[in-house]
Amino acid sequence: MKSLLLTVTLFILVTGLHAQDDLPFLSEDKNVSGIWYRKVMVSDRNITEQKSHVEEFPFVVRALEKGNMLVTMVFMFEEECEQVKFVLEKTKKPGQYSAFWGAKLMYIYELPVMDHYIFYSECRFLEQKVYMGELIGKDPTENHEALEEFKKFAQQKGFPPENIIVPEQRGLGHDDI
């Protein structure tokens, strides 16, 4: 009887863990180079208090060799536009990338909605871990189907729904990135 209970418990645990990541990782043959928009973001920390009005600029991803990617982002810092570039290095784990000397681990999930992905990241800051999820897309307009998929993902990962932020999109000319 105990072995049956143990078997059932293990089956439920494995099924539950599998359900957390039921979206496929970015496939090896996908090229995600181009201009992207961060449409929605969520964190395990309440960042809505710090950012009552969030503006997002498009960012550029360029494919490099060995599956690595160069990311160029623009953001506002003290009322001025700042640009940052960093490399997402492909790790041995499927769908996983590393940046900033391993301080940030990112998983890229493909959504069933065309040209939409979820970036799920774990960042280490001063001995603390911060988890974030971001819905990105090729088009700045809202996509209800992608938003619903993102909300399901956020719920599966345990993010509080009140921490979901929909930023205002700001455009840049291609020469600005």
Automatic annotation (TrEMBL):
| Domain of life of the source | Eukaryota
A Pfam family found in this protein is Lipocalin
Record's keyword terms, sorted? Secreted, Signal
SUPFAM superfamilies under this entry?
Answer: Lipocalins (SSF50814)
User: Where does the signal sequence lie?
Assistant: 1-19
Its annotated compartments are: Secreted
- Please identify the protein, giving its name as recorded: Odorant-binding protein 2b
- Its source organism is Microtus ochrogaster (Prairie vole)
Positions of the Lipocalin/cytosolic fatty-acid binding domain:
33-170
Please give the family membership noted in the entry: Belongs to the calycin superfamily. Lipocalin family.
